[in-house]
Amino acid sequence: MKPMEDLARRVALEWRRADGTLASFPGIATRALEAFNCELTKPQLDEALGRWLLKRSAHPDQVNLHNTFGQPPVTLFNNGRFVVDLYFWLTFDTSIHSHGFRGAFRVLHGSSLHEVFTVRRSRTIAPDVALVHLGAPQASLLKPGDVRPIEPGQELTHRVIHLENPTVTLCVKTINEPRIAQWKYFPNGLAIQMRRLEPHLIKQVYYFQYLMGQDAKHASSYLGQVLRTLDRSTCMNLYGAIANGAYDLSESAALHFAAQLRRLHGTSEWFKRYEAIDQLQLEELHFEACETPIGRLVAHFINGGHDARTVRRLLGRRSKRDLESVVSALMDIETLFGHELSMEDRASIKELVAKPDRKIPGHLRSLGQIRKIREFLKRV
């Protein structure tokens, strides 16, 4: 992986010349990635990385051991101060978030939609939980060769929608700076600080699951003691990890965890907002199975309610008929509405979209996606 080694050497040299100041690093990383010359095709990159991974002595310490950011993430260089990471994105979306590090990233293969948000805090619930206004994002399309800087903390809040599967990005970044808080933002205005879950906490969760099979009452008491020692954001980061299956808890243990958390925080406004996110997601198009970049982009615009000017700027000169064809193709995806629908209902939905003045029948009114699709087609 000589091109990556050359990139790392250049960054290290320029950072030494800048006296190693953190403020200088995003600019150094951005310039290095803009000058980076690697003409490997996607198959060639796959082959080269495979050979590199087989060399057991060649690997630096890996920043991300699990596929929580990239599928997979691979650390190619790590000198203890900064890393060069390669990310393969098989999923289309990252959450709206800030970073506890700084640097830059470059698209190597594929394409992405990059959205930058200006966050305005409306209420502080606790040091690690807040209510915010996100506003409309500044959006741009990224293609191979495009580079974007990563500023730390509140200096950059963004989301990246990966439009091709896979999309591959190369990132040069400092190793997490503990004094900088990372935040995750939800569409309904809830903001929760992102936390690294300590190994001892994960062991406590596993021990709780063990106790569930021995003495459920004791297990419940034990879990309550664990949760009462945690701040809000750690509770919610742990809850999210469990809900996403990161620790492979049994269904009964996961449900009991959720119930305990609800008893602890369930009356709080911020927790009610967190639970309301599930309902918001039920009204979104689930376009994970969409294979075309234009289909993913249109589905995201439908979900987000983007204004007509942004949509037109990013979709180019496509006619309304073209967009109607894209929407029609989306509705052939079986998982688009989040659950299985009959052939008759699918045909009815297509008809409702094609004829927006037609009244939605009662049994389909719960599908908020129909309304969103109609509104999108009216805007464009």
As a percent range, the share of helical residues equals: 40-55%
Q: Number of DSSP strands?
A: 13
Mean pLDDT: 91
Show unreliable segments.
none
- Main sheet: strands, sense, barrel: 8 strands, antiparallel
Rg to the nearest angstrom? 23 Å
Structural domains: how many: 3
> Can you say what the CATH homologous superfamily of the largest domain is?
Jelly Rolls
Based on the structure given, which CATH architecture of the largest domain is correct?
A: Sandwich
CATH topology of the largest domain: Jelly Rolls
Structural class, by secondary structure, is alpha+beta
| CATH C-level label of the largest domain | Mainly Beta
Write out the strand line-up for the largest beta sheet, numbering strands in chain order.
Answer: 6-7-13-12-3-10-5-8
Strand content: 15-25%
Helix and strand element order: HHHEEEEEEEEEEEEEHHHHHHHHHH
* Distance, first to last CA: 46 Å
